[in-house]
Amino acid sequence: MLSVSDVTSGAPVSDQHGISAALAGDQAAWDMLVSRFSGLLWSAVRAYDLSAADAADAVQGTWLRLIESLHTIRDPDRIGTWLFTTAKREASLLSRRNRGERLVADAEHAHPDPALTGHVHPDPAVAVLTADEGRRLWRAVEEMHEPCRSLFRLMAAAPDAGVHQLAGRLGMPSGSYGPTRGRCLNRLRTMLTAQEATQ
Amino acid sequence: MTHPPSIDDESLIAALRLSGGRDPVPAHVAAAAQAVFGLRLPEAVTARSTVTTAPAGIRSSDETRLLRFAAAELTVDLEVTSMDGLVDLAGQVSPPPEAGARVEVRTLHLTEARELSPTGQFAVTGLPPGWFSVVCHRPEHSSVATSWTRIRL
User: Fold this and answer.
1) CA distances from B90 to A53, A184, B67, B114 (A)
2) pLDDT string in tens for chain B (153-residue length)
3) What are the angstrom distances between the C-alpha of B105 and each of A172, B100, B126?
4) What SS3 state is found at A162?
5) Which of A57, A60, A137 sits opposite B19 (nearest CB)?
6) Most buried by CB count within 10 Å: which residue of A79, A105, B34, B136?
């Protein structure tokens, strides 16, 4: 298991080197990218409540997109952000299909991602994925009232539990789990914003 | 470090789970990611997916899907049919490339090669569902590869 800091601490020099080496056909350099970012991508896609098989497919699709785009990378420092954003897009497509939306095929529609080919603003979402931020998130969770505190603890501790099981453990009807989680996430966001305002 | 309200639910969930450390990456997921490196085609031009509208009179049924991939010089149209848990592809490369062009239909685990007909057509049957890409190799020009696409049954 990778530590979170391995996953996202910026190491632009090594990314630059890693991508150059991967472009030159160096499998070991590619494997290094895979081990650095796999944990990040797995967490990114699992957040969409996908089965383990679908999550694996979404991560695989993300690496395939990188292979396709490798030679167009202008900004290796942004590769973590690009991978994260791409993984979310793949997972979101999959989860929409699972909910019965008719999508022709899970292809990326039309636009090459700007993160690798041009200028982008840092994605605020990636900022929460560092070890320090993770600890801060959990400190905030520990201050929350029920059901939010138990819901988040359980959500993190039982990644394979379905909604039905989670709702049962929390003593709520299955139909309440999603909306409750949504409210708890909103509250958590509010707490984090308030913390920042007082720092 | 700021968290604009725009940070989405899924990113927050991912951060909570990642720092919770209770959902390690399955070994097969990392192994599959390493294997992807063997599929790269550094010299190929990528044909990106474009949204197709079925021609008038042809209704894209649940079993048949039409996909179009466009690169600067050529377009690959695919008709995808799912049968008995497997996938059939019928393709058209336009404009038809010069004589001697061939296509490869690549999946993560197997590759099927086909000669192109003079009119630029090809077909492959019995593929497993999942990720695939079609590569058109041309004797006088660079190869064109369709963006990896996931076909589900």
Assistant:
1) 28, 49, 10, 11
2) 554 546 899 999 999 999 998 999 999 999 999 999 999 998 899 999 987 655 544 555 556 789 999 999 899 999 999 888 899 999 999 999 988 999 999 999 899 999 999 999 999 999 999 999 999 999 999 999 999 999 887
3) 49, 17, 12
4) coil
5) A137
6) B136
